[in-house]
Here is the input.
Amino acid sequence: MKAAKLILLASISAASLGLCGCDVFFGGQPRQQPVYVEQQPQYGDPQVQYIVAQQAPPPVIVEQRPAPPSASYIWIDGYWVWNNQKYNWQGGHYAVPPQAGVVWVAPRYDHDAHGYRYTPGQWKKQNEVQNQNQNQDNDHGRERVNN
Here is the structure.
């Protein structure tokens, strides 16, 4: 009688463990659990995309540059962005370079037979832009408007 109660109690305990999500195994070998590995992002130069507008952007707005939050921040000048209907001003701001050895290359507009081709600003490795003038206004000869 006691043996029957003991077997019943052991059966109920084993069943309740299985219902609770516990892993019960026999023979000394646990089941193999699947391993999930998140895809790691690969660093690479992003593919530059172009926007073409039929009209020239308005004059560049010269903004007051506030004090930087810390010495690790650099100022990124504001610029005009075409949204397929009109130009929108993106105000200047401070940013921290995403890694050492990179510099900010400002966005620009190049006029060609199709219109004004906008090239977005981007972080580039410093050795790739050594020959470019980093102090360029990027207004391509248009008048500047002080704000």
Q: What stands out?
A: The mean pLDDT is 74. The chain has one helix and eleven strands. Residues 51-146 form one domain. The radius of gyration is 31 Å.
